[in-house]
Amino acid sequence: MTLRAVALRCLGILLLVLAPGAEALAGTSPGTPVVDHHTHLNAPAIQAFLPEFCAAVKRLGGCDPALTAAHSPADLLAAMDKAGIRRALVLSDGYLAQSPMMKPQRPDAAALMRAANDWTVALARRHPTRLAAFIAVDPLRPTALGEIARWRDDPAVRGVKLHLTASGVDLRNSRHLAALAGVFRAAAGARLAILVHLRTTRGDYGAGDVQRFLDAVLPSAGSAPVQIAHAAGWGGIDAPTLSALGAFADAFQAHPEHFRHVWFDLSGVWSGHGSASDRQALVVLMRRIGIRHFLPGSDWPYNGDSLAEYYGHGYPQLPLTQKEWAIIRANVAPYAKAR
User: Whole-angstrom Cα distance, residue 79 to residue 301?
Assistant: First the structure.
């Protein structure tokens, strides 16, 4: 599979002692996480836009079929109920509307982005005890800061979702780093958490990119919570993911006080990609960082419609101890708590 095809699969999958501030609770059934920290639902405006988007990106490998499949809020809630999951973070996919992968760009791209965010927030308002919303922006667009400001102090909005692959961000581009840092500052100023899909389309993505992120971007978040999606990869486990997470592990061990507000979700990590040795290497890095910095997440519905199946049979693919799994399943980031 080519790098571009993997990037498009990624869009499909994503579209492809406690750490201070985290809360530990008991799940409603054995092996069930309290909160799923990474789920998706396509807003109607995005669902209608997807055929055009997928036709445009066919040159890059096309869309994962899971991206275009229709799923309703009732489907997500039913999957949560069957698995015994109390709450979920629902991530807007509004960034797709402004993705540079879409050629030509839609003149109403910004309006589509806002409509997707409006719908996701309205969903969380309808189900305040079960769902919490993350809006989405493209950090390289001039609309990003205004959209973040629009949701300041809204109790239904817990954070901002950024997808560096979809937005064409290059962590080796100083202009991109500056724009990303500005978005981090804006989110922190709006008292919103930041959930970032960090991996870019560079074939040699890894430790060097993470170091640039740590030096030029993360400090702009201040003490605002930051969640790194897919354990710093884009699903599965491979050399770039391990390289990236290794850079985080080095930084955590050197200055643990700087990372009390940083978590990693494990969505899609056990998706069938990666060898047994890769899985063992990931666990070694997780232990270096600290198991309490890792959050349960499914990337629903992109790893199957059944959360019960995913958490019941997907988790054991990582060679963690029962005690370590118990910690992960009970971890609840502060922005994911019920209000």
Answer: 10
Render pLDDT for 249-289 as a digit per residue (tens, 0 to 9): 999 999 999 999 999 999 988 766 678 899 999 999 999 99
- Are the beta carbons of 303 and 13 closer than 8 angstroms? yes
Paired with 89 in beta bridges are 132
Strand 331-332 and strand 294-295: the pairing is unpaired
Question: Degrees (nearest 5) of the Cα angle 273, 229, 94?
Answer: 110
Global pTM reads 0.92
User: To the nearest 10°, the Cα dihedral for 284, 291, 306, 74?
Assistant: -150
CB atoms within 10 A of CB 58: 11
What is the per-residue pLDDT for 27?
41
- Kindly report, residue by residue over 154-180, the tens digit of the pLDDT: 999 999 999 999 999 999 999 999 999
Nearest CA to 91 out of 292, 224, 207, 230 is that of 230
CB 49 within 8 A of CB 289: no
End-to-end CA distance of the chain: 44
Whether the predicted pLDDT of 20 surpasses 90: no
Token readout for 291 is 């198991």
Spell out the alpha helix ranges (H) of 33-153: 44-56, 65-68, 73-83, 109-126, 144-150
Q: All domains of the chain, ordered by start, with CATH?
A: 35-46+72-332 (3.20.20.140)
Tokens representing 285 are 């890095």
Other Cβ atoms less than 10 A from the Cβ of 310: the count is: 24
